[in-house]
């Protein structure tokens, strides 16, 4: 009898703890963390800004849910950090998730969706250039023509 009670109570307790953690995240907390992120990003300290950007995504997911529209900007910011650090696959993943959320929660003509698509096209162009013959670490392509990388 005692084992059955513990088996039933443990998942309920875990759910309660998770709900408490989500309730503990406030807009003020996220804004403070965003300011920290922005200061690091503007100073071009991308490796230091990365974990802060990831934290903002986690905080937003905790507060609003994994598919809420509020995640669009934090995901785009995270993608931009990855992009600046030349981690193009990670940037692509972040931008795509942002666009998917915006498409699910609004229309394609929505301004936020348009902005996310602009970022998405930036990494697409960069990825195309990166696989182009003649691409080097300085960003020079010489006479190379761009191709689509899909």
Structure description:
This protein has 150 residues and is mostly helical. The chain has a domain of 104 residues: Tetratricopeptide repeat domain (Serine Threonine Protein Phosphatase 5, Tetratricopeptide repeat). Helices cover 73% and strands 0% of the residues. The termini are far apart. The C terminus is likely disordered.
Walk me through the topology.
Elements: H1 2-24, H2 27-42, H3 46-64, H4 72-84, H5 88-105, H6 111-130
What are its keywords?
150 residues; mainly alpha; disordered C terminus; 6 helices; Serine Threonine Protein Phosphatase 5, Tetratricopeptide repeat
What is the fold named in CATH at topology level of the domain at 27-130? Serine Threonine Protein Phosphatase 5, Tetratricopeptide repeat
| CATH architecture level-2 label of the domain at 27-130 | Alpha Horseshoe
Report the end-to-end length measured between terminal Cα atoms: 58 Å
Class computed from helices, strands and strand pairing? mainly alpha
The helix content, as a percent range, equals over 70%
> How many beta strands in the DSSP annotation?
0
Number of helices: 6
